[in-house]
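Workshop exercise sheet. Pairs work together: one partner reads the sequence aloud, the other fills in the structure field after running the prediction. Swap roles for the next sheet.
Pair: D.N. / O.F.
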Amino acid sequence: MKSKTKNVKIPTEVKEGIFITVTYIHSICKTSAYDQLRLDQERKKELLRIFPKLDKNTLVEWKETKYDSCGEKENTSDKFHGFAIHYRPKPSEETWKKEKDILFGKKPERSVESRSESCVAESGTSPQFQKDEIVSKVLERKKEWDGAIVGDLTGSMFPYTQQLFLYFKLQTLKKIEKFFVFFNDGDNTPDGKKVVGKTGGIYFQKLKVYEELEKLAKATISGGYGGDGPENDIEALIKAQEVCPDCKELILIADNFSTMRDYSLMGKIQKPVRVVLCGSYAGINTEYLDLARNTKGSVHTIEEDLENLMELNEGQTIELNKKKYVLEKGRFKPIRSI
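Structure field:
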């Protein structure tokens, strides 16, 4: 049984993508001929040599698939052994155009779900995007919220934009009467020219019917699809409180896998932010916990609502999605299991 890889050529798309899950696929040896634990450790070490950033990425979900037939050549030789990496590619103009066509009624040439998660290793059928329906689930159970909706409409949020459309389309028997602020992180401004607090790509309007919502979203998406990982969430939230001074709160539909380019401007937000956190399968991006605590807001996943974060004291911990986080020097940090 080997731990080394040969002739590894990693496509640029994989290197620039956001890793979602890593599945270790291997055989279980029941003989004492060699040390299974050592082999597992050596294999993971080899993986981290190729992808060193994986070791500190707390948002990646680690899984395992075992073959209980080690030593039986006819049962294992034709099976894949190694790591299957499911990743979300960096948004591109090609995927942006296809997703835009889907959102606004044009049939795609092929399924776009494969863009949301792809498999590096050939280990069977490609995984499908996890349709967690978080947007509709949270908005449905939090009908008492009274505020502007701030939505990340960059390319990485395509499945959740679909959910937003569907939810409000089903509300057409009554008027929407809400402020919406959508952002795309700069209207295709080159990443190196994006300025904190002045990135742009923000579109807003008080909407009354679904058709107006779709029109505003189309303008936002047509303006740009994002680019690098960080996005201008805070800039959009500042705009929301500016255009809707009477709003009691701000409802942010956020990408858990993206950091905030303008995290440093958080102090300018004077209203509670309700964070609907999309893509929190394996862990929580702690920047959004900080945002909720500093604005006396809350964080929401598909099953849980985390509120009263402002009451936490230094050194105290919280648990969300079966993961624990500790408050240190005013910021949350994940507690990594051993």
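Discussion prompt: The chain is about 30% helix and 20% strand. What would you look at next?
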